[in-house]
Amino acid sequence: MKYTTILLVLFFVQFAVGEMQKPHFLMPVPQQFELDENQYRLSDTFAITVKGDCHPRLFRAATRTLRRLAGRTGLFFPQDFITAETAPDQAAMTIRVNRPGQVVLYENESYRLVVNAEQIVLEAETDIGALRGLETFLQLLEADKNGYYIRGAEIKDSPRFPWRGLLIDACRHFMPVDVIKRNLDGMAAVKLNVLHWHLTEDQGFRVESKTWPKLHELGSDGFYYTQAQIKDVVQYAADRGIRVVPEFDMPGHATSWLTAYPELASAPGPYTVERKWGIMDPTMDPTREFTYEFLDAFLKEMSGLFPDEYIHIGGDENNGKQWDANEDIQQFKKSNNISDNHALQSYFNNRILKILTRYGKKMVGWDEILHPDMPTTIVIQSWRGRKSLIESARKGYQVMLSNGYYIDLIQPTDFHYLNDPIPEDTPLSPDEQKFILGGEATMWAEFVIPETVDSRIWPRTAAIAERFWSPGSVKDVDDMYRRLDEVSFRLEELGLLHIKNKQMMLRRLTNNTDVTALEILVDVIEPVKIYTRGAQRAYTQQSPLTRVVDVAVADAEKAREFRGLVDAYFSEPAQSKLDKMKETLDVWNANHDKLLTTIGISPVLKEIESLSADLSACAQIGLEAIALVENGTRADEDWIKEKLETLEKAKAPRGQTELMIVSAVEKLVKRAGKM
Amino acid sequence: MKYTTILLVLFFVQFAVGEMQKPHFLMPVPQQFELDENQYRLSDTFAITVKGDCHPRLFRAATRTLRRLAGRTGLFFPQDFITAETAPDQAAMTIRVNRPGQVVLYENESYRLVVNAEQIVLEAETDIGALRGLETFLQLLEADKNGYYIRGAEIKDSPRFPWRGLLIDACRHFMPVDVIKRNLDGMAAVKLNVLHWHLTEDQGFRVESKTWPKLHELGSDGFYYTQAQIKDVVQYAADRGIRVVPEFDMPGHATSWLTAYPELASAPGPYTVERKWGIMDPTMDPTREFTYEFLDAFLKEMSGLFPDEYIHIGGDENNGKQWDANEDIQQFKKSNNISDNHALQSYFNNRILKILTRYGKKMVGWDEILHPDMPTTIVIQSWRGRKSLIESARKGYQVMLSNGYYIDLIQPTDFHYLNDPIPEDTPLSPDEQKFILGGEATMWAEFVIPETVDSRIWPRTAAIAERFWSPGSVKDVDDMYRRLDEVSFRLEELGLLHIKNKQMMLRRLTNNTDVTALEILVDVIEPVKIYTRGAQRAYTQQSPLTRVVDVAVADAEKAREFRGLVDAYFSEPAQSKLDKMKETLDVWNANHDKLLTTIGISPVLKEIESLSADLSACAQIGLEAIALVENGTRADEDWIKEKLETLEKAKAPRGQTELMIVSAVEKLVKRAGKM
Questions:
Q1: For residue B486, which residues of chain A lie inside 8 Å, CB to CB?
Q2: Which of A379, A539, B352, B370 has the highest CB neighbour count under 10 A?
């Protein structure tokens, strides 16, 4: 039985003696909420009505909510499409809003949700607040043997930060419209409100430009969004109360632009679309007027295409090599008293800012656009570290945090979860804190394709979303993981592939044979972290991302459970815990022989053969250590030394993955030495 | 271990003694082929070159082939995008074509593929033939402990029928573009070449019309394809050598048209988009000139949008009620000597045919358009039965078969597989047979949504595709099922959800708890067949399709295996077979108690509780019967009578599903009576 069931059982035991409240699955946790023993029992007469002055998106959202509720419960509800004309006067659930919301920064997203045995009332200032409340409503669905019900609750909720984003890089690997749409649905489910759409890169120019058509014609290999598709996505996002902020990276990260228009470059072409990852030299020439005429026309076109008030200009990782090597640019710097390349880039940024301002847009950029020459009307996105976040806020720039939310770097959920834009010990004054708009998780796409991207975004981004929405005091990691499992499961109804593609990838890796042994291994390994993957092996845009490392995820749940079990034993020893460890270790110990059979028919697995052997060896060591502990026998020094050496070697990555149970076995070995 | 592995083991045993050739996984089976012991060993230097005069689609297809090969093997191949400019002079694999193919009926799709230890050569008259050959090439990928290889082969292949289609109904439930695209990829993988896109229905008008915009504005609930999307899909299909034949159903099945333009109807409106399933009354008025003016403008627009030479006008299931009730129409019939409604519809069809002819299109329609008044230039699609197929061919109409390929009716794969457009005992002469173009599987969408549609189409449609492509003599059902398992698995790489959504749906049905017990039940049940589902329960377009019946599939593999095992025992009794049966029956017998726990927390499962109990009861009976057989004890009459009664009751559908193992247990009981 899975965790959920165990919890239910636990609940009935504990609830009966009045000790604790039945656990809830709200994520993000609301600002204020009380759950009670009331239940609104669902039946096939359940209906929703919408009242007040709202945008039509709320009718569509209410209809989708009804369909999701039907999908989960199998109930045949009477309503089909809820519209202003067909909404009944009276219904079990009433949604009441005051005014149409606008999909803009600082829009009111608050709501109030009351559920009792008789009815459900959702009230909000705007329909966007109501959308947020509908997601909370769905998280209150529970069941018992008599049927489904909405749990009694009184909730008053609003976000902690107004800018809660997810960046999707559609350039390193193209992400078709359906990938974007299902992730927008996932974002809405956890109350994120900004899709930061990274649309241009060295490796691809992904938006159709009618003004400069060679951009997408020559810069995309045919993989780009048409303007019709962009409008469709923007509309789809707006329907979910999500802003779309496009990023057009300049003056660096620009090889694809220069492939199409080499006359923009700081060094002679020709250029070709980049196939490798890294920081590349090709950079726009900030000293020629043509560059600004070109970008003026381009940004005018994009300003019309993207309705959001903000446009992101990137601005990161310009290595300055082309500028340094270009005599005209050096001369320009001298003539204009521009001291260094950072100042030259600020000159460029200021020219771009004027263009954007003319088209009614505000500028967002990465840390590197922060410079004394820039006015405080720009928004800084901090990727390099907390320092620039603090510096920006102190200097009066609005700023949001992405450092610590780089989900492409394969760090565990709790790392991101505990990374707070404004931690308790912030050095910022309350007035300075107001400049912090929120943050964004960033899904850079060097190592993801449509098949795997969901499993890198989800479920971790749900925990980040809670960080951006809920009070800073909500930071119980165990409780987060408990709720995350449920949220992750519910995200599947939106078409996200983060769970189901695991088995599919295992089937492919085992050539459609029994996946059990491989899965046991995969469940205790994680991909190498931070920037190790690209450093270990030369990848191109076309390299396969279908290996073991691609099915492994950032949070190896079984390994985390085992580490938790070992720690729990050390804080409170008990034979039952040792028995549980032994049960797990026995499975791992026996696994390698089984996996060998699979490796024999599936050569792609060859690269993890020694890793699999090490899992068995580690398990064997763990079993020996536990036997010593159980016998009260102190392990001798040589044994300890030998085993620790073996374990140390087992930490080496293989197939670009690492065993995540070694540290726990080390603890057992060390314990055996202290009996 | 799975079947594939067992087969490999079998092979090594049998191959060693020279008894049989290693089994292959080709589907459809080529017209002529020889496999040999050569192996082209794949390495990370593998490359493809394309020579001759071809359409650019072949470069894109070769690139996709390379990516699929890399995805399966994990090999890092050097080529990125294969183009005319970058194709190397020499490469391990050479594709050679004579001329650009056209995506039209009767285009040459033949190819020749030779694989030996040194090289792979694929030759074809057209690039479309080469596309077919690339799919065969991928089916020759195998592996041993030393790595991956392409199996030595000499293949000469061409299709048996020129029209090999899949109908997707995007009306009853809307199917977004990504659903269509992934299914086009699946079609290409099994060499189907016609997407019959059912775009208008009582329940929805799914194509944007600029001429008559109310059609999609009022007839679709907002769920329609824009013309840009249509063009994108047509281009995507053409890139895979697949024609797109749109269907605009008229004069019946037309409620959504009439919702937008009631002036087209044979009875006064207003109309609203139909929400229920069935044959509806609303029908266009064939007697008013406005109808033809309207359809002329509409078909002119659609003729420009869809490049294929054929347009399907439906024509089915006009119940004539509105015509009979309309005095003007009755008068029109009299004045024009039109004897009955069928003749009136032929009058209508002839008017439409004139319009289509004017726009360079040919007419396709269902059986009902067959009428002495219609010229033989039209194509008949036979859905009602073999009789109209034969009648059409004899009268000189081109015709294709869909009767027997209605995959929405949840019949097992072998039923469709053995349904041949030209069976051995056909009454048609060779000259008459030439009128049979092929056939189409039909995915009507009353009971499928994007989440489930793939599992209704696949893998059964792969077997139908073999029927349309391979020689009629290829009809070994066991061998088909063996290969189908592999083809089904490989279809997953195209993004199809037919396998992976099963676990997702089970998770939802079990409220994210252990799915094992539910899966054991689901693996031996099938949805009720033919038109029973809609007859048992009143569905609307918005009813949830997320219940047990929706995760059950047409071919319950575990049940089929058990039935096969029982039959195998009776043809050749052996204790090992009895032991295997007992093992399975023990699992089923114990399953109900386990599933009860899940049902207790997931009320949506309540409807299959008694079915689950019956599975256990049937298994218990089976075990008792086997015990009698093993003891050589003859069962007494009362026991047999009682058990057969119990089994009879167990056949009753519950939750719109049926147990598929009852007949096999009956056989065991009867056997026990004959000891």
A1: 512
A2: B352
Distance from CA of B514 to the nearest CA of A (A): 5
Question: Coil, strand, or helix at residue A533?
Answer: helix
Task: Say yes or no: B527 and B658 in one domain.
Answer: yes
Secondary structure of residue B155 in the 3-state scheme: strand
- CB contacts, 8 Å: B655 with chain A: none
Instruction: Please choose, from the candidates A295, A174, A272, the residue with its C-alpha nearest in 3D space to the C-alpha of residue A229.
Output: A174
Q: Tell me which of B108, B137, B157 is where a domain ends.
A: B157
Peptide bond into A427 cis (omega under 30): no
Long-range CB contacts for residues A138-141, cutoff 8 Å, separation at least 24: A138/A65, A138/A68, A138/A69, A138/A490, A139/A24, A139/A25, A139/A26, A139/A27, A139/A487, A139/A490, A140/A24, A140/A26, A140/A115, A141/A42, A141/A69, A141/A72, A141/A73
Which of A25, A43, A46, A72 to mutate to probe the B interface, most B CBs <10 Å? A72
CB within 8 Å of chain B, chain A residues 371-410? none
Is residue B97 domain-resident? yes
- What pTM was computed for the model? 0.96
- Do both A341 and A226 map to the same domain? yes
> B7 in a domain, yes or no?
no
Q: What is the pLDDT of residues B604-626, one digit of tens each?
A: 999 999 999 999 999 999 999 99
Judge whether residue A10 has pLDDT over 90: no
User: Per this entry, what is the length of chain A?
Assistant: 675
CA distance A283 to A202: 10
Give Cα separations from A225 to A197, A360, B152 (angstroms). 11, 24, 42
A543/B76 Cβ within 8 A:
yes
A83: nearest CA partner in chain B: B221
Of A157, A188, A216, the position where a domain reaches its end is A157
Note down the domain range covering B103.
22-157
Together in a domain, A39 and A188: no
Domain membership of residue A53 (yes or no) is yes
Residue B397 CA neighbour count, 13 Å, CB half:
28
In 3D, which of B584, B608, B583 has the Cα closest to residue B595? B608
In B80-187, the DSSP E strands lie at 93-99, 111-115, 120-126, 141-144, 147-157, 163-169
My answer on whether A451 and A322 are in the same domain is yes
C-beta atoms of B80 and A542 within 8 A: yes
B490 lies in some domain: no
Judge whether B536 and B528 are in contact, CB under 8 Å.
Answer: yes
pLDDT tens string B405-439: 999 999 999 999 999 999 999 999 999 999 999 99
Q: Which of B495, B490, B512, B494 is nearest to B503 (CA)?
A: B512
**Which residues between 93 and 112 in chain A have a beta carbon less than 8 angstroms from any beta carbon of chain B?**
none
Give yes or no: residues A272 and A347 share one domain. Answer: yes
Residue B467 and residue B556 share a domain = no
Angstroms from A12 CA to nearest CA on chain B: 13
Identify the H or E element spanning A526: strand A525-527
Q: Which of B142, B317, B492, B630 is catalytic?
A: B317
CA distances from A579 to A565, A583, A630, B589 (A): 11, 6, 10, 31
Q: Cβ–Cβ of B67/A542 closer than 8 Å?
A: yes
Asked if A144 and A176 sit in the same domain, the reply is: no
Angle B69-B73-B77 from CA coordinates, rounded to 5°? 65
Total residues belonging to chain B = 675
Asked whether the predicted pLDDT for residue B243 surpasses 50, the reply is yes
ipTM value for the complex: 0.95
Number of domains in chain B: 3
CATH code of residue B83:
3.30.379.10
Distance, first Cα to last Cα, chain B:
35
User: In this structure, what CATH number is given to the domain that contains residue A327?
Assistant: 3.20.20.80
Let me know if B317 is a catalytic residue: yes
B294 and B203 within one domain: yes
* Residues B506-528, mean pLDDT to the nearest whole number: 98
The token pair that represents A74 in the structure block: 């199998």
